[in-house]
Each structure stands twice: as C-alpha cells, then as structure tokens.
Amino acid sequence: MKIFIDNLDGSGPRDYSVFLESGPRVHRFLNRAAEIEATLVGTTPEFVVPVAGARVQLVKRDGGKVFTGYLFDPPAYEYLGWGMAGPTYRYKLVAPSDECLLDRKAIPGRAPMAGRTAGAAIRILTEELLPGKFDLTGVDDVVPLPYFEVHAGKNWSLHAAEIALRSRATYRVHDGAVTFQAIPTAVHDISEKSHGLSAADLKLQRQCRISNDLTILGDAEPQAYVKDYFCGDGMSMRFDLSQVPFTRPNRMLLDEEFKGTSLDPLHWTLRGNSTGISVGSGKLHIECTGADGSTVLQFADNIEVGGALIFQHGQLSFTGPSDGIIGGLYNGTVSALSCMAGFRVTPNAGQSAIQAVIGGLPVGPVVGSTAGHQYGLTTRVYASEIYRSKELFHSSVHVAGNGRGGDIIAADTRIVLELHDFDPANPSSVASLPIVLYDGLLTNVPGCCAYALIDGGSLHCDVTFTRISRPVDAEVRSAAPGQGYRTRLPGALSEGAECSISESPAVQFFSGSVPVSDEKIIVSYRARGRSVAHINDPDSINRSRTDADNGVFGAVCEVVSPAARTSADCTNAALALLDDSVRESWAGEYRIWNDFLAPGEDVHPGDAINVSAASRNAEFRAIVREVHIEVHDLRNERMEYRIRFADDQAEPLALACRSISSLTVPSTTSLPTTQLETGMPPLAAAEVIEIASTTVTIDTGVSLPRGGGIEVRRSDAGFGTENDRNLIGRFGTRVITLPRLSRVQTYFLRQYDASLPPLYSEFSTAIFVDYPL
Hints:
Layout: E1 2-6, E2 14-15, E3 20-29, E4 35-41, E5 55-59, E6 65-70, E7 76-83, E8 86-96, H1 100-103, E9 113-117, H2 118-129, E10 135-139, E11 144-148, H3 156-167, E12 169-174, E13 177-182, E14 187-191, E15 202-207, E16 213-233, E17 238-240, E18 251-256, E19 268-272, E20 277-280, E21 283-288, E22 295-299, E23 303-304, E24 308-318, E25 323-330, E26 339-348, E27 351-358, E28 361-368, E29 374-383, E30 392-393, E31 404-405, E32 413-422, E33 435-442, E34 448-463, E35 466-470, E36 474-479, E37 486-488, E38 499-502, E39 506-509, E40 517-536, H4 538-544, E41 554-561, H5 567-581, E42 585-593, E43 608-613, E44 618-633, E45 638-646, E46 656-659, E47 671-672, E48 687-691, E49 695-699, E50 709-713, E51 727-731, E52 735-739, E53 744-752, E54 765-770
Parallel strand pairs: 10-13, 14-43, 16-41, 16-54, 40-47
Antiparallel strand pairs: 1-2, 1-5, 3-4, 3-44, 4-8, 5-6, 7-8, 9-11, 12-13, 15-42, 16-40, 17-39, 18-35, 19-22, 20-21, 21-34, 22-34, 23-34, 24-29, 24-34, 24-35, 25-26, 25-34, 26-27, 27-28, 29-32, 30-31, 32-33, 36-37, 36-40, 38-39, 41-46, 42-45, 43-44, 44-45, 48-49, 49-52, 50-51, 50-53, 53-54
C-alpha cells in the first residue's frame, strides 16, 4: 500500500510512503465527505512539500483505492529542529474526498425540481457544476422526488445529503465517480460464532426510550377552501377578505432576457433544428422550417401545476407566416397531442393567425397578426390545490421503493390564455386590455407539466423575453351586469395587473380596473393554518401498559426534512417515525482488522450490520454511520477498522426533526394507527348560484353518497353529529338554500358519509357573502 500525492507540477503522482511518520488514517462518514489524515516528515532533499489542491490517493497493491481526494488547504508546519540539510518540519495533512471539487463551485439559481427521481437530481446538480468530470453510471434513481428546492447558499454536498436523507440512500464520491444507492448498499455479519470476533472489541448500547404517541408539526399549510362574494358599487376599490389567504413567497421560476449569444443550458433544452434558433440583441431569433414538432425549445425542469402560475411567453414579432405552438404546457412528452394549453400559430394570408390550444385541439376565437405589431402571450394557471404531491417518508420498515406517501393530489385547474396586441404606432395599446382567447376549467390536470416555449415546424419570429412566476395563490373573477365572468389579474400594476391581494387581508383594485356598480366579484383562495398530526400506536401502548402506567409515551417534534407541507405529510412522517420509535434502539461500535474481512470486502457508511450476540441478548440490524481506518503497516497492508453503527430508532436515517415547545402545538386528538381512514373529498367546487335578501343558494358541486350529506355551520369548528352549538343544518341534496340574516354572512360546509361515526371532509369550504340586502 502506498500514498501518492500529485502536486500538479507536471511530475505526476509522487510516492510519499517513505516520508510517513504516522497513519495514514481514513475517516468515512454517512452522506458527508470522507477525509484522510497523515503526518509527513521531510527527511531528504528530494522531499516536496505538498501544495493546496494536490491530488491525494491511498492505493493498495492490487490497485484498489482506499481513498482519493484533494488537499483543500496546504499542510500545517511543525518545526522539529535543525537537521543535516537545514530546518526539519513535520507536515500534517488533512484532505477531503473528491466532492470537495464540487463543493467549491457556487450552486446556480434554478427553478425547483418537480417530478424527478432522487438520482436524477444528483446527476443534474453534478453536471451543472462540472460537466463530464465525474462518472455518474453508479447513480441509481432510487425513488421519485416529488419536489426539491435548490438553494444557492448550500454547496453540492449539502444538497446531496438532503436528497439522500429524503430517499433513505447514501452517496459517495470516490476516484472520479459518484455513486448513489439505496440503503443498505451491502450487508455484513457480526456474530459471536464468527471467526476472529473479539468480544472486547464489540461495544453495544441498548435503550428502551419508546415513543408511541407522536405529535408532528410541519409547515404552514393551505386549509379551508374559501370563496368570498362581493358586489361592486362603482366607487369601492378595496374589499376586505374573510380570512388570511395562504401564500407562498412570490418566486420567479424563470426570468429569461435572452442576453448574450447563446441559450443558457441551465434553463433550456433544444431539440431538432438547432440552426434555426439563435440569440442576439436581447432577442430569441426563430427561423426554422420543417414538419410539426421538428424544433422544440423546452424548459429544462418540469413545473408543479399547483396554486397560481403565470407564464409570460414574451412579446413576439412575426417575421413571416408561422406554423407551430408557442408557450405550450404538456402532459409528459412535448407533442401537439399532449399539449394541455398553449397558443397555436398558423399561416394566414401572408401573416399569422393565433388561437388557443386546449387538450391538443384549437378552440375559441382566431386573431390575425398585423405586420409591425408585437404580440404578448400569457398563460395563467389557477389550480384548486396548491401542492400537487405528497412527500415521501421512509423508515427501516418502509425503505426506499416502499415509502409512505408520494401520492399525486388531484386538482381542477383554471387556464386563462391572453393575447395583448401592441401597436407601435398607437401608444395607448400598451394600456389596453388583453384579448382572452380561453378561460376555462380543466379537470384532472397532472401534478407537473413540461413547458416548451417553441414546439413548431415553420416558425419565423423574434421573442424578447420569457418569464415563469408564482404570484399570490388566489383567483379573482368578476362579472359586470349582463356579462359573463372574466378572470382578473392579481399582481403588480407595472405588470399589467388589475388588483393586488394583501395580508390585511383585502383585495385592492387599481384605479383603471374599479368594479362597476352591481359587478359581481368572486375571490377564491385557501385559508392558512399549521399542519399537524397526532398519531398513536395502540399495540405499543398495550404492550407498555402496567399497573403504574397507562403505557402512553408521548413526544412532540417538528419535521425539518423531508418538508411536511401538509397535515397529510405530517401523518406520514408520524407513521414513519412510529415504525421505529415503538421499539428499543441499538447502537454500537466494533473494531476489526482487515485480515478478518473477506477478500475484496470493504466497509462503507450505508452498509447494514447484522449483529448476533446471544450472550448479550442482542439480535438486530443496524446501519453503518462511520468507518475509521488506521493503517498500521503499509507494506503488509494491515489496517484496523473502527465501525460505528446504529439503527433507525437510535439515529433516524430518513427524517430530520427538532424538538419544539409544547405551547406552540395546536389542539389535536390522538388517532390510533388503525383508524386513519381517508376523509370525504373537500367541497372545492362549491359555489353560490343565487344571493337574495334573505337566502343564499349554493351548489356544492358533488353528488352525495347514499346516506351522506352536507353539514353547514356558522364557524369552522364542531363538525360531527354530537355537537349542534353552531349548526345551521344538515342537507341531503347537492343544491342547498341557507338563511341570510345580514349583509355579511359566512357559512362553513363539509361533506360527510353514512358510516358510524360519519367521516367528514378534512377541510371546510368557507362561503363568505358581502352583498347589499
């Protein structure tokens, strides 16, 4: 075995084995960079002091590499005295493994990853930082990753560790290759019957800190489905909302100005006729010919179709008759048939015609282009669900590939396609209202979609910019007397919006968009609340019950990662924790010489250890967390391994939690794991169809199950047959008529079934009416 160091001076790797005073020692950690420590003494004039950035390798006789990495910092000098050749120093080296190359690169800002696998996320992050540098063939997909945010302030290793945590996997960067695999990556046995076992070198720690009643807190979540109804008087610009809307931080997913001379590969993937696409003068120039779909310019990431989204496809200037789809949202592969929504452009008398595409088919009015005009194309999306997938949670029972959660959340989505005609000869056209080519509700929209700015055959135009943003998650619609409802745009006045929504809470219309007298206004949004779950394991409680104790051992914690965005996520997190927390925990450490390992066998963090020690009443499986290797004899390759291991109860592998004060926990009822029935669907489609001076008529939007009904209350509390204190009534029909007692009236609705006790919708639908009597 030898230690080689390449000082990048053109001489290649040098053998430093003869200069070793002690070590080397290799430290391997689960989902962290490995390290090597060594102490060198320069005893001959040929000794070259290792430099920062030098390549370090510990290599066995057969060519196998125990460690590869780089000196992040130059070695520390320790003066030993004056020798025959002058001053003599001891040099202490500490080098991290190969991922230090990635960690020194800044993570570029990018849109969140949606609908990708964990392995794909590792590959993307690695290739973006150092394209082609690392071998990625050892990166497995492992599990789907419903949603993953990339943070510019974190390095590659922190992102890789989070991805590994969320998928119960392990990563390693070694000898120019990245591996990413589900845990366990290998299995080793430690048994009292094993050859070479030293009982003194096996240390075990057993604890019985059982938790069988868990309260889990997550993030703020969208809860009640709220619809506020107002009536304009021709003067009022502000309308107070009934509840504080759930809002995510406004985020620009893409802000492309087409600067420079080429497309940014971080944002775009170009397929087909690349010669017809160029960038220059702050524009995307499109001059392509061919059949439909022969040129596709696609956004590099999928986009979660949840809450509100605005796609500004840019201002187009046609340079010739065109044929293709602009700004398409696609269900899977980009093709005309899979286009959920977009703008179809076709040749028209020497110019072009623009029409909406919905479900792969052209619909609605056709607008012909005019030479010299510019056309702003915008798609607005309003999904009934803000989050479109549940997070995945793992445990020692539900390992990678069998996690809890990950379901797609169904949602109906309103799509609005707008065209704004800008006439350079008419400055007032900038302030004119856009033409609505489509405004409709699509059902069962997929959880995420592909976005292609261009999907065409013969397209001839220039595009000035493209933006994708997440505005306030609220939908504002209004209908002037004698007209149908149209969607109003919340946002900034500078972006052509008609109103803004504040946390006051209120909707504020801008001066040029004040609702006229008797104009009906509907504001749809989700109320805000803290996600929480309170789950117990009745079997563990019964086993733990004694004459002196009821057997309930509670714990309260907050999930940090994976992010628990909803109460359903909190429930799955609690179930994953209960898989392990109801059992005693084991941890330990074992020392073994490599002589007793099988030929070619090595031990890495993420491997499993099966411990069988009958004399200590120990039969369990644990996961290796750290491996410390000390080389005692380089020539004979004798190494001592110190292996630290623990099971998921002692150290959770796939969940990161933190303790919180019980004072911050919302009031909850503990539910046993055996009674976690799925509730009835929410009444997300409920809407008011008539408002009279003494009544309000509501279409609940559902066909009721046999024996089921709609329960209506004055406040969002007390739902159930045993409580009538704020009850307005229970109804067995889809359309219900409720009493109206004042100008301002609020109703809370939930659906229930015929079971005993009945199951209710998890969240209410709140109907708020503020109409003159």
